[in-house]
Structures are given as structure tokens and as C-alpha cells.
Design brief:
about 130 residues, five-stranded mixed beta sheet, 3 helices, globular
């Protein structure tokens, strides 16, 4: 759907790094790219984007939007604590070097673009 996609929430503008629509899953996919180590605040930001996409973009026949957060690095325990009890469909938090599909729920594996496809869409390396 695009990169740096504008979502207007209240009187503020927010920009989703990458927004996809997956035809087979019938849902939007929000991807946030962070060139730094994982910060728990990123979960709140991604949750805002998921909620806004569901309210502003999603058709009633679509499934709930899912999110992927790609960070330069992560601490497993910090990620675990940050996502514990989180109920929105978030595919996972992955490091650049990690294949995103390794952290996805089983029902989504093989259904989303690979890192190579992301890089091709962005015109080169995502770092």
C-alpha cells in the first residue's frame, strides 16, 4: 500500500513505515522499522498504528490488522515483558538479522513478505 503512510488520529499526523494489504489473509499489515535496539515504547506506538488502521482503513469484512516490529537488536526478556498480556495481533519483534518468519504465529508463517522482499520494495538494504 505504501511507505510513510499517513494516519490522522485526533489532530495529529502519524506515519506508518510500511503498510501492506495481504489478499489471502484479508488484513492490513503494519511494519515498523527501527534502526535502534528494541524499546518498550515501540509497542505502544505500533498498537496506536494497529488501532488506527483498523478504525480508519479496515473494511468490515477484513480481519484485524497485524503488526511487525523490526529492530536493530533486542533483549528477549525486555521484549517478553513488553508483550506479555498484549492482545492485539502483533506478528512479533525481530532483529534485522533474524528472519521475521521465525517469530510469527504458525498461522501466519509463509504468508508475509521476506526480508529480501522488503529490501527489494525499499530499493536496497533496510539498515
Amino acid at each position: 500500500m505504501g511507505r510513510q503512510v499517513l494516519l490522522e488520529v485526533g489532530d495529529r499526523d502519524f506515519y506508518v513505515d510500511l503498510l501492506f494489504y495481504h489478499l489471502k489473509l484479508r488484513r492490513f499489515v503494519v511494519v515498523e522499522l527501527k534502526a535502534v535496539s528494541f524499546d518498550p515504547a515501540f509497542v505502544g506506538q505500533l498498537n496506536l498504528y494497529l488501532s488506527a488502521a483498523d478504525d480508519l482503513l479496515r473494511h468490515p469484512d477484513d480481519n484485524k490488522t497485524i503488526g511487525l516490529l523490526l529492530c536493530k537488536s533486542k533483549n528477549e526478556l525486555v521484549v517478553e515483558y513488553s508483550l506479555r498480556g498484549f492482545n492485539s495481533p502483533m506478528g512479533g519483534v525481530a532483529e534485522w538479522e533474524t528472519k521475521v518468519t521465525e517469530s510469527l504465529p504458525e498461522e501466519l508463517k509463509g504468508s508475509l513478505p521476506t526480508i529480501e522482499e522488503f529490501e527489494a520494495e525499499l530499493g536496497g538494504d533496510v539498515e
